[in-house]
Amino acid sequence: MTSGHGTTGETGAAGPTGGAAPAGGSGGAPHRGGGTGSGLTRRQLLGASAALGGAAWILRGTVGPDSARAATPVPPGLPADTELFQRVFENWSGEVRTDQLWTCAPRTPEEVPVLADWAHANGWRLRATGYRHTWAPLTVADRTPESARVLLVDTSRHLTTVIADSPTTVRVQTGATMEALLAHLADRGLGLTACPAPGEITVGGVLAIGGHGTAVPAAGEVRPDGHGYGSVSNQVVRLTAVVLDPASGRYTLRTFDRSEADSAAFLVHLGRAFLTEVVLRAGADRPLRCVSRLDIPASELFAPPGAAGSAGGTASAGGAGGLLGGLLGGLLGGDGPRTFAEFVERDGRAEAIWFAYTDYPWLKTWTVAPTKPLGSLTVDRPYNYPFSDSVPEPVARLAGQIVGGAWGSAPLFGQLQYLVAKVALTGDITDVLLSGGLIRGLLTGDVLTHLLAGGLHSDLWGPSRTLLQYVRPTTLRVTANGYAILARRADLQWVVSEFAAYYRELLAEYQARGEYPVNGAVEIRVTGPDDPAYSGVPGARPPLLSALRPRADRPEWDTAVWLDVLAFPGTPGLERFARDLEQWLLRTFDGTRAGLRVEWSKGWAYTADAAWSDPDLIDRVIPGSLRAGGGPGWDEAVAVLDRHDPHRVFGNPFLDRLLK
After folding, report:
1. Which of 628, 618, 31 is nearest to 270 (CA)?
2. Which backbone phi and psi does 6 adopt, to 5 degrees?
3. What does the CA dihedral 619, 620, 623, 626 come to, rounded to 10 degrees?
4. What is the DSSP string of 315-383?
5. What span, in angstroms and rounded, lies between the C-alpha atoms of 515 and 85?
6. DSSP classification of residue 63
7. What are the residues whose beta carbons fall under 8 Å from the beta carbon of 583, sequence distance 6 or more?
């Protein structure tokens, strides 16, 4: 029921798929608002689509070049035998939806440089696309017209090979899914420490935006060879990109070893490059135990340092954690951790999902467990939270009412999501029985029976991939902002406590005015920085544009806290709320005690009306966050990408403005 995924967010197969304008389109943020002539505003229609959309959206609007429905003439002079069709581009949240755009699907990597030569000669631009699981405006703009001179390049159809490269590396084409990659590694007894939660996202999209999971070393944990605690991009040891050959003036495939300085600009490129293949390093797989609990109030889990145990939760939206929830928490945790930082210290891997207007977050922790713990449920495949992947009918019904205009139902929706998760995970129906008539009317006996039918999933054990991938495309579709706070490990609890306190204060301030700008959840994850030593390549450098690139002047900042706030697209006041929050984050984590960077795939640079629109953040603050600290960074990355694609075939007006 939550779909921020940290990632994550996937973008295109070789570059991000979000909402930047192609050549001939607007370079601003995706348009929002405006009438549809159907009685609902466009914002409400977007919200309904995002909330309840399923996997069918991926192929929506596909038209062949010879179809009578083809909107525009076939692009002139395309290379012979190009697999070509028209398709509506729609991103994960439904906030970016275009006219029919010409799309091709190269069968081999060698076809891509030929397409790049064609694009340069004819004034077109190429935008990589995959499963379009992203938010940020990095590929095409909302309402991009059919006349735009942009060709989408879908690598998810054919560029999907995954093969062994060496005993500890894998060669993968960028259109392959992360699910296929992790399955291949598992078959060889290998795995990654962490990765984005969705499986149906392309490897290339994850690399383009520095996709990550949640993991730092637990107390006493020694990092095994092949494993790392940063982004997936930092695991790359070699990559192949489409670049201009200055001698011939034509585009070609070129392979960069991680030891080559220029490779650092391609590891996270935001869609300003096109990768066809990478070689990734992995390590011996480490089975994991994943424990879920919902018995610790946010006031304690996110308490200020030194104040743990002194604050309790309230009785609203979750009671006291429930009788069985408290018992389960005692059995699993004993007298152990109670704050978020304590869980991270003990287990190294944690995620908090805090539904809006509730008191008890869903806390997941993963621990390395070579043998099955007593009482854990063994799992042998990913996606082990069916209540989240297949949205229960009461949740879907209330979500539909909210996006249809019942925005004030957000507190009820938050409580409903919390209770559904609690029942399905722990079997505890105490809070349901104690709830008022509205909740009891939604969570009927039949619904509770359905939630419990699949067994309890609060304590799982299995190969790492079965517990690292847990989000399907059928989950609720929401929009999200995203930020990484770089700080000392010792300041982790301070970061989450400051954020949690302000978030609750801001939410209450809006609620007092009768506004409900958040109807999803807060998601909090923790990773380490992109230490290039994890790649195992001598002379490797960190990804220059990664939010996890270490600050040379702040080596003590060894931790990144990822913060996302989720809501249905079109929620009134959402952008204002996100701007208020963003401005507070910038003031609080100003580089003195901790520093702020944006999560590329999510929402950032908010005005009161739209994301990706604040000129000061786009032109100064965000580049400055990757210039601060000295050493190679923003300017070198821009220069390298420009040198290898001086015609900016792999670009769009939004990236032209951002990457300068």
Report:
1. 618
2. 65, -25
3. -170
4. STTTTTS-HHHHHHHHHHHTT---SHHHHHHHHSEEEEEEETT-S--EEEEEEE-SSPPTTPEE--SS-
5. 44
6. B
7. none
How far the first Cα of the chain sits from its last, in Å, is 38
The 3-state secondary structure of 117-175 reads: HHHHHHCCEEEEECCCCCCCCCCCCCCCCCCCCEEEEECCCCCCCEEEEECCEEEEECC
Active-site pick, 125, 525, 541, 549? 525
Give yes or no: 523 in active site: yes
The residue from 32, 42, 120, 133 that is catalytic is 133
Helix (H, G, I), strand (E, B) or coil at 26: coil
Query: What distance lies between CA 584 and its chain's CA centroid?
Result: 22
Length of the chain: 660
566-570-60 Cα angle (round to 5) = 90
pLDDT in tens, 208-251: 999 999 999 999 999 999 999 999 999 999 999 999 999 999 99
Interior/surface letters 114-144, b for 16+ CB within 10 angstroms, e for the rest? bbbbbbbeeebbbbbbbbbbbbbbbbbbbbb
Please answer whether residues 198 and 474 qualify as being in contact, where contact means their C-beta atoms are separated by less than 8 angstroms.
no
Cα–Cα distance for residue pair 520/2, rounded to 1 Å: 7
Distance of alpha carbon 282 from the chain centroid: 21
Contacts of 441 (CB under 8 A, 6+ apart): none
pLDDT digit string, tens, across residues 69-104 = 566 789 999 999 999 999 988 888 888 888 899 999
Q: Are 544 and 495 in contact (CB under 8 A)?
A: no
Answer whether 380's CB lies under 8 Å from 462's CB: yes
Q: pTM for the complete prediction?
A: 0.89
**Nearest one of 532, 529, 533, 541 to 636, comparing CA atoms:** 541
Reported in sequence order, the residue ranges of 46-96 that DSSP labels E, i.e. its strands, are 84-90
CA-to-CA dists, residue 177 to 1, 203, 248, 383, 544, angstroms: 22, 6, 34, 15, 24
Of 499, 591, 558, residue with least CA distance to 230: 558
Residue 75 pLDDT = 93
Residue type, 658: L
Q: How far apart are CA 582 and CA 572, in angstroms?
A: 17
Beta bridge partners of 240: 255, 277
From 200, 515, 523, 575, active-site residue = 523
- Euclidean distance between CA atoms 589 and 546, whole angstroms: 18
What value, to the nearest 5°, has the Cα angle with vertex 594 and ends 227 and 620?
100
Type of residue numbered 358: T
SS3 labels along 407-475:
HHHHHHHHHHHHHHHHHHHHCCCHHHHHCCHHHHHHCCHHHHHHHHHCCCCCEEEECHHHHHCCECCCC
Question: What is the average per-residue pLDDT within 375-392?
Answer: 92
Q: Which alpha helices (H) appear in 111-253, and where do they start and end?
A: 111-122, 178-187, 203-208
pLDDT of residue 35: 34
3-state secondary structure of 82: coil
- DSSP secondary-structure letter at 619? I
Residue 74 tokens read as 């076939």
Mean pLDDT for the chain overall: 88
Contact partners, residue 60, CB within 8 Å, separation at least 6: 87, 88, 90
From 10, 300, 351, 582, active-site residue: 351
CA distance 126 to 23: 10
DSSP-derived 3-state class of residue 177: strand
HSE, side-chain direction, 13 A CA sphere, residue 502? 19
Clarify whether 450 is annotated catalytic. no
Find where tokens 């301030």 sit.
Answer: 509
The per-residue DSSP string of 388-411 comes to HHS--HHHHHHHHHHHTT-GGGHH
